[in-house]
């Protein structure tokens, strides 16, 4: 049976029309699911009895399950079990502008980035739309917190699960759904060029972040195997076109790895690489993973790297390390739980 959280607003409207109902039923049902957050069809008070019976026949409301959580004052990490027993995770972060949730998009990841805890897990499968939507719903229910921002930076490569991720964005952004503003949603990609091009044409107002992590092909090939398929020249052309089309500023994420990508010369190279783009660079303190081969850059070198970029008039920030003490880096809770 189809899970109702898998249905986009459009699909639900089409469904109601197909069974001879008015399409505004989709507005009503969306409000029950995403605003009043009911757990059964029978709670949908403005839907007539016969229609509730029909909905119960046609749809499941089944949810994924929270099986573990860890909390610090600024971060909460949740582990979920899916109906096929796979496990995924999401991290809730307290920011000065509200609460953001870092959502996973796949079980495992196929991209194999060397610094990332998800790499060794490999990709098991894509998440369905309902499995992404429910990460938000269940964490809001468990924490009592209203999630205002969503980042697709958990386990997985969102653009390797493009259609389900786009439907997820439509649902959480829908005015009858969770109403999370498009500008409060950020997709992070390792740089799948054809999907960036497709995304540029999609007219979604959501933010795009690109995990860059290296200023030249040699280093990026080493850290991120995807670079061999879509090297920096192609990535930059695609991002320039994206900017032309959307006029939306791109974020580059750059994890600082001691003596790997954090020398002054890398900063100068980075400036040269991005200077023609309207972008900003987010320097990220490396969170050491269980089997990680890297060390974090020390604060002094991070400051020096930052200053070189800043002096070149490129917007640059250093990401706060909110979740380091609860293993919040990508994939770490799941890896830890499987090892226990
Ligand atoms: N596949 C997508 C989304 C995964 S999240 C992508 O590549 O963008 C990727 C982000 O997770 C990185 O840009 C970084 O911000 C964060 N990240 C992953 N591993 C990390 C680590 N060991 N330490 C700190 N941040 C990490």
- Percent range for β-strand residues: 15-25%
Order of SSEs, N→C? EHHHEEEEEEEHEHEHEHHHEHEHEH
Structurally, the number of domains stands at 2
Instruction: Please tell me the CATH architecture of the largest domain by its name.
Output: Alpha-Beta Barrel
CATH class of the largest domain reads Alpha Beta
Rounded to the nearest angstrom, the distance between the terminal CA atoms is: 34 Å
The third-level CATH topology of the largest domain is TIM Barrel
The set of bound ligands, ions and cofactors reads: S-adenosyl-L-homocysteine
**Helical fraction:** 25-40%
Report the uncertain regions.
Answer: none
Summed up:
By secondary structure, this protein is of the alpha/beta class. The chain has helices at 9-18, 25-35, 49-58, 129-143, 162-173, 193-200, 217-223, 226-229, 232-246, 264-274, 299-311, 332-339; strands at 2-3, 59-60, 65-71, 75-81, 87-95, 98-102, 106-107, 125-126, 149-152, 185-189, 207-211, 250-256, 279-285, 315-318.
Describe this entry's structure for a reader.
With 340 residues, the protein is an alpha/beta fold. The chain folds into 2 domains: 2-60, DNA polymerase, domain 1, CATH 1.10.150.530; 65-339, TIM Barrel (Alpha-Beta Barrel). The protein is 36% helix and 20% strand. The chain has 12 helices and 14 strands. The strands form 3 sheets. A 10-stranded mixed β-sheet has the order 3-4-5-6-9-10-11-12-13-14, covered by helices on one side. The chain has a two-stranded parallel sheet with strand order 1-2. Strands 7-8 form a two-stranded antiparallel sheet. It starts with a strand and ends with a helix. The chain binds S-adenosyl-L-homocysteine. Residues 111, 115-116, 153, 157, 188-190, 211, 253, 255, 284, 286-287, 289, 329-330 line the site of S-adenosyl-L-homocysteine.
């Amino acid at each position: 049976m189809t899970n109702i959280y898998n249905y986009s607003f459009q699909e639900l409207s089409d469904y109601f029309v197909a069974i001879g109902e008015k399409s505004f039923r989709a507005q009503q049902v969306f409000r029950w699911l995403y605003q009043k957050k009911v757990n059964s069809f029978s709670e949908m008070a403005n839907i007539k009895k016969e229609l509730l019976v029909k909905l119960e026949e046609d749809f499941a409301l089944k949810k994924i399950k929270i099986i573990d959580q860890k909390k610090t004052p600024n971060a909460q990490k949740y582990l979920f079990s899916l109906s096929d027993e796979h496990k995924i995770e999401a991290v809730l972060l307290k920011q000065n502008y509200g609460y953001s949730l870092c959502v996973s998009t796949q079980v495992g990841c196929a991209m194999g980035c060397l610094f990332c805890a998800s790499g060794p897990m490999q990709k098991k499968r894509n998440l369905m739309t309902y499995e992404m939507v429910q990460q938000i719903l269940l964490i809001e229910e468990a924490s009592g917190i209203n999630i205002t921002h969503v980042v697709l930076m958990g386990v997985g490569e969102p653009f390797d699960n493009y259609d389900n991720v786009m439907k997820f964005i439509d649902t959480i952004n829908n005015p009858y759904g969770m109403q999370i503003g498009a500008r409060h949603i950020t997709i992070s990609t390792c740089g799948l060029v054809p999907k960036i091009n497709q995304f540029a044409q999609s007219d979604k107002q959501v933010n795009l972040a690109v995990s860059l992590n290296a200023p030249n092909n040699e280093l990026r090939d080493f850290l991120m195997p995807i670079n061999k398929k879509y090297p920096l020249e192609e990535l930059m052309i695609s991002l320039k076109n994206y900017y032309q089309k959307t006029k939306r500023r791109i974020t580059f994420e750059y994890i600082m790895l001691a003596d790997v990508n954090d020398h002054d010369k890398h900063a100068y190279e980075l400036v040269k690489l991005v200077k023609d783009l309207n972008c900003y660079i987010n320097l990220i303190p490396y969170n050491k993973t269980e089997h990680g081969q890297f060390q974090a850059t020390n604060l002094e070198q991070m400051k020096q790297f930052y200053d070189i970029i800043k002096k070149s008039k490129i917007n640059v920030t250093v990401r706060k390390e909110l979740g380091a003490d609860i293993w919040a880096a990508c994939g770490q809770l799941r890896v830890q739980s499987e090892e226990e």
